[in-house]
Inverse folding.
């Protein structure tokens, strides 16, 4: 004979669990908000170049002594201008290798990168014109923009970015090539140093809260504001949710060889190298290039079967590719869906 428990009894059993979950989320949200309030605000002033200054930057000699050509003929890949900080660097390194393995010999990159606020969208803009903290001009991207022979430009988002941080770049690009499109890489949550390294549920909850807060306070506003001004032109490279998914895999014990969440805590192979940057020890930094490939080429990196990154466990590599495509297709800011599950954009 079967007996059904009264709903009131079941509710009484679940009530403490729900209360504990609610308390955990509230504490995590508080920690995430406190961390966001401490985020450094770059002292990079706005700068609108005059027509003369724009012309000088676009036609300057390559002061950075870069040997790469300023333009390429259109081929079977994208011609990509990249700007950003150290969180962008993994994509700068790995994307050429991924596209080569995919048979895209027409993929070309030209990048201007620097660390911290010097690599912010405004920091690089100022540096190109010699307006950054008294340093000489380093025009790497502006002379390339002048050719009108580039398809895409990307940036790494930084704390307190605004729509006006990006508009000078976009206006300059569209003036030379109206067909260009633009992508902003998000930043993944850092390891919450305020939390004991043994409190795994709270660590995960804080990371989830930081992810949600970043979307709410920064990326939703940037996407809405920029697409209002440049309809359909600007999308987000959602590396953050892909990294967060890999953190869940780590806590589930599904990453062979990974012995810590962050190597600054004493482990040898973790998601993070120092609580912020992704580690190369187990290949976690590869996930940034996978997101770039998935968004820019509108197909899952799982399809690039000829790319086998050195020193990366095949299980970890497969999970990173899956996490990248999952993040891309479930984030409305990427502009990509895959409802049929074919590994390519609808």
């Amino acid at each position: 004979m079967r007996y059904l428990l009264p709903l009131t009894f079941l509710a009484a059993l679940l009530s403490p669990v729900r209360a504990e979950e609610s308390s955990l989320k509230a504490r995590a949200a508080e920690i995430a908000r406190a961390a966001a309030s401490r985020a450094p605000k770059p002292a990079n002033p706005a700068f609108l170049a005059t027509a003369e200054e724009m012309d000088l930057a676009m036609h300057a000699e390559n002061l950075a002594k870069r040997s790469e050509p300023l333009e390429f003929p259109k081929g079977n890949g994208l011609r990509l201008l990249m700007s950003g900080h150290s969180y962008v660097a993994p994509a700068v390194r790995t994307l050429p290798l991924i596209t080569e393995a995919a048979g895209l010999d027409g993929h070309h990159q030209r990048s201007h990168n620097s660390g911290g606020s010097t690599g912010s969208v405004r920091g690089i803009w100022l540096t190109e014109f010699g307006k950054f903290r008294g340093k000489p001009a380093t025009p790497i991207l502006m002379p390339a923009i002048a050719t009108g022979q580039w398809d895409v430009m990307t940036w790494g988002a930084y704390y307190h970015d605004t729509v006006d941080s990006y508009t000078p770049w976009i206006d300059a690009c569209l003036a030379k090539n109206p067909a260009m499109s633009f992508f902003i890489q998000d930043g993944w949550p850092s390891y919450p140093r305020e939390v004991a390294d043994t409190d795994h549920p709270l660590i995960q909850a804080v990371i989830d809260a930081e992810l949600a807060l970043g979307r709410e306070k920064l990326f939703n506003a940037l996407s809405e504001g920029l697409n209002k001004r440049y309809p359909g032109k600007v999308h987000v490279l959602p590396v953050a949710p892909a990294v967060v998914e890999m953190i869940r895999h780590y806590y589930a014990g599904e990453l062979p060889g990974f012995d810590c969440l962050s190597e600054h805590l004493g482990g040898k192979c973790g998601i993070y190298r120092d609580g912020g940057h992704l580690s190369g020890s187990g290949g976690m930094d590869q996930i940034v290039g996978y997101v770039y490939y998935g968004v820019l080429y509108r197909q899952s990196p799982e399809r690039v079967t000829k790319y086998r990154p050195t020193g990366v466990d095949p299980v970890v590599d497969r999970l990173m590719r899956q996490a990248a495509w999952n993040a891309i297709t479930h984030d409305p800011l990427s502009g990509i869906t895959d409802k049929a599950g074919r590994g390519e954009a609808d």
The radius of gyration is 22 Å. The longest strand covers residues 79-84. The chain has two domains: 43-185, 195-230+239-336.
